[in-house]
Amino acid sequence: MLGAGGFLGQALSGGLRQQNATVHTFGRTLPAGLPHDALRTEATLHDADALTAALHGQEIVFHLVSSSLPETSNRNPAEHVLEEVLPTLRLLDLCRTARVRKVVFASSGGTVYGIPSVVPTHEQAATVPISAYGINKLMIERYLELYRHLHGLDYTVLRIANPYGPGQSPFKKQGVVAAMLHRAMSGSAIEVWGTGEVTRDFIHVDDVAAAFVAAARHDGPQRTFNVASGTGRSLNQIVDDVKLVLGTPALEVVRKSARAADVPVSILDTSLIRRTTGWQPRVAWMDGLAATATWMRAAYRL
User: Fold this and answer.
1) If we measure between CA atoms, which residue out of 139, 164, 61, 65 comes closest to residue 106?
2) d(CA 63, CA 108)
3) Which of 9, 1, 279 is nearest to 163 (CA)?
4) DSSP count for the chain of H helices, then E strands
5) Distance set, CA 251 to CA 122, 164, 248 (Å)
6) Distances in Å between the alpha carbon of 5 and those of 30, 67, 82, 147?
7) Residues 6+ away with beta carbon under 8 Å from 249
8) In 3D, which of 131, 141, 168, 155 has the Cα closest to residue 291?
9) Which of 96, 98, 107, 268 could lock onto 226 through a cystine, CB 3.0 to 4.6 A?
């Protein structure tokens, strides 16, 4: 698993071990909390020797590595192509040599569609990203299809909505739920961009991990799936739910300028993955929000 030290990677590591899978974790830094019996390689995708060794004998590769953010990717698109797309192409070549059967790729359901022509948005909708981040994800999706066509390397793409849950850092510029909870619990003002009516589809990290497991098992002709709750929530609604979960109705909210890379509404249609694999989200929004708050209180001593 590539990107095992990240938010999604740690959740997926646990999910795979529950399935009694043999896991080789690969990442820039790997926390001690990963399964103790997993093989571990601390390196980046630029380290061809380490990557070659880690791929040896692997049947399925989960590609969760991402080094950019939608907000910052437009500042220097060329740099992010070098950091995101080219290393993935080298990875695919190494997968061919190692006789990997399948690659499961974490794409972005919130950015590849751009400003959607239909909501909820299905997998066949137009893909017109408004961020370099979304374009890079889409480029990788296209290269995966090319390598399947040319070399028979199977793949599944998961276009993931906005994951949240225990383990998500509140200090990165991605993860609005974690950021809002942490600021509220530490006595700081919650930041909201624009009018607060930007709407996103939030999915619990445990449900995302389950989708990866379902994708690894999937053997049908469909290769691209949305992974989401199918329900949209505005930033203003999240603020209200944070107040409710924490029991603090008087939280201060600071309004900040809207961001150019934010699509106004992103809600994904998940009927294809439900119908094809039997996967469905199981963690209710308020339950997941409360569990995240409980974890954050313990993790950051709030």
Assistant:
1) 65
2) 13
3) 9
4) 11, 11
5) 36, 21, 6
6) 5, 13, 21, 27
7) 243
8) 168
9) 268
Calpha distance 87→77 (Å, rounded): 15
Residues 6 or more apart in contact with residue 208 via CB below 8 angstroms: 8, 11, 12, 158, 160, 163, 227
Helices (H), the chain: 7-18, 48-55, 70-73, 77-80, 86-98, 132-151, 176-185, 205-217, 235-246, 271-277, 285-299
Integer Cα distance of 114 and 256 in angstroms: 22
ω before 120 within 30° of 0 (cis)? yes
Global pTM value: 0.95
CA–CA gap between residue 301 and residue 57 (Å, rounded): 42
Give the tens place of pLDDT for each residue, 221-262.
Answer: 999 999 999 999 999 999 999 999 999 988 899 999 988 878
User: Of 113, 133, 147, 155, which is the active-site residue?
Assistant: 133
Say which CATH class 7-299 falls into. alpha beta
Task: Please report which helix (H) or strand (E) contains residue 107, including its range.
Answer: strand 102-108
Q: Enter the DSSP assignment of 229.
A: -
Closest CA to 7 of 179, 122, 127: 179
Whether 133 sits among the annotated catalytic residues: the reply is: yes
